[in-house]
Amino acid sequence: MNLATLQREVARAVMIPLTPSERMRRIAPNGKSLAKVAARIIKPNDRLTSFERLEIYNRQYWFRVLDGFSDDFPGLRAILGDRRFDTVAKAYLTECPSRSFTMRDLGSRLESWLRKHPELLIRSAAPSGRHLRRPASSSRFQLALDMVRLEWAEIEAFDSAALPSVGLEVLRHANPARLRLKLQPYIRLLDLRYPVDDLLLAIKHDAGTNVASNAMAERQKRKKVSAVARLLPVPTHLAIHRVDNMVYFRRLEREEFAILAALHHGKTLERAIEAGFRKSRTPIQQQASDASAWFRNWAALGWFCLP
Amino acid sequence: MPANRFNGFTTYGVGIGLRIPHYDHILGKKPACDWFEIISENFMVDGGRPLEVLDRILAQYKVVQHGVSMYFGSAEKLNRQHLRRLKNLARRTGTPWVSDHLCWGSVDGRYTHDLLPMPYTFEAARITAQKIKEVRDYLEVPVVVENVSSYAEFHVSEMTEWEFLNEVVERADCGILLDVNNIYVSSQNHSFNPLTYVNSVPAARVAQIHIAGHSRYRKYILDTHDHPVIDPVWKLYDRAIQRVGHTATLLEWDDRIPSFSEVHNEALKANKYLASASLAAAV
Predict the structure, then answer these.
(1) Around Cβ A251, how many Cβ atoms within 10 Å?
(2) What confidence tens digit (pLDDT) does each residue in B6-43 have?
């Protein structure tokens, strides 16, 4: 057996999902006996069979990627509950194994994958606690999707590049019909149906609290889940950005969001402002002062750089 | 033989792995520490806090890069994006050498994020050595390879692990990061004498040594890096130091990480062995 063949066979076995009791499956999805596969490739020793030795790697693989995924998406876990989250995580990681040298990218395809698998979120799940009320299935999908978009944006905002920023003086002296500005590479703009930013902050705050007992932990969990259940859709525009290398969520007016999105897509300053106030209810006489204040804020935050 | 071409002719002492729970202590208190080892992949990013912290550390301390996903032993080609990012980081840190593991972990572009053991075959040695040379030529920094802990052995193997290590490093003309804890773990899992391994390593190629703790289960040992170093591992370290001389030594502690002082004090126990090696060399 050459190196490539051996590695393909071992990797295939290692990446097969574990049983519910977190052991290696006896039969692979292709119908092959994993005991036979292991025996053909791996030597047994006086304590472990070939299957048991392969199982160590199979379990390590799943524990590692599930831990990493779980660390990255605590908000999604809070929305789905532990059991459904685990189901989604295993299904996603089975279909979309890591294609990056860094585990940081584990969730990079989650949003697009979830859009193709809404049934995993909508299907009614057995509640994980008798007292816990879950949001209606139809809204849970959008809520979960919004949370995934926010959590992935946070990961990207954390370690993306920062370029030299452009100050307000550049804007003052430039021709708005010609000036194009770029947003800092670390900024992510999100238009969401639910205010999941508040929810995620609450979840993280809970996670950081010292919990004195299991009973307290359970009460906090119920509180958190009922907060999810009560969450009503509110159109929410966000900029995920950094200040002193800490990630923040900044709520934006619809018009603010539209201007920034237009700039991000390469529109000139003039066109971006036009796009921002298109269909706006803001009185025309107020638009100029609003835009001026926003640009002052954005420039102070160092959000702009030159293309 | 404290410095050699594989560690950039440096004479580093005892270091520890740079880990997030220690950031505040290190940046705030600036404790004395010979050097820090960073996990390269954690800093192969474009910006943000990881690079800010790294730059502050670099202003105060010597740093060496240690990777976990180059996968010299994978049959597939090297990941060019990975290499580019690694080279950028090496320029930033000025690392005198770059280490990664003698293992594989990716197939057809899919990553296991594990350090999977090699089949000890001549074909694998040839492929692995070729990739090590490619990495070294691209990075323009000495490359050293670390022996991993393993829990499985393959029927196709044609030699022992230490023979395979020697075959690879001779073909690649590269250095060795000798992990004596990994030797101990594998020796227990595969029933060989760990001293035979340590005695077989080409001493002139050892650029760095790793020490660590592990977890013992009923039928095998796992390399968990979550305990102090046990006496049998110190004994292997002692023997390794006797053979290779005063060598840059690093304690790995990656899970259930105690305070900086506790980790550093555990690492500094190595000084006892290093001092006797220096004395022996002087006599």
Answers:
(1) 13
(2) 998 889 999 999 999 999 999 999 999 999 999 999 99
Q: Which two tokens stand for residue A206?
A: 């809970």
The number of C-alpha atoms within 13 Å of B221 and in the hemisphere containing its C-beta is 24
Which range of residues forms the domain containing residue B225?
5-282
Residue B161 CB coordination number (10 Å) = 24
Q: Tell me the CATH number at B195.
A: 3.20.20.150
Q: Give exposure, B100-126, as e/b (b: 16+ Cβ within 10 Å).
A: bbbbbbbbeebbbbbbbbbbbbeebbe
| Separation in Å, CA of B197 to nearest CA in chain A | 19
Q: Where are the alpha helices (DSSP H) in chain A?
A: 3-14, 34-41, 50-72, 74-80, 82-95, 110-116, 119-122, 137-159, 168-173, 196-208, 214-230, 254-264, 269-277, 284-300
Say how many domains are in chain B. 1
Does domain A161-195+231-307 bear CATH number 3.90.930?
Answer: yes
Maximum Cα–Cα distance across chain A: 84
- In this structure, the strands spanning B98-101 and B143-146 are parallel
Tell me the DSSP string of B74-114.
-SSPP-HHHHHHHHHHHHHHT-S-EEEES-EEEETTEEEEE
Radius of gyration of chain B (CA): 18
- For B49-66, the DSSP string reads HHHHHHHHHHTTSEEEEE
pTM: 0.92
For residue A47, which residues of chain B lie inside 8 Å, CB to CB? Answer: 219-220
Give me the total of CB pairs closer than 8 Å, taking one residue from chain A and one from chain B.
Answer: 126
* Domain spans, chain A: 1-70, 161-195+231-307
pLDDT one-digit tens code per residue, A226-255? 666 678 999 999 999 999 999 999 999 999
Judge: A1–B156 Cβ closer than 8 Å, yes or no.
yes
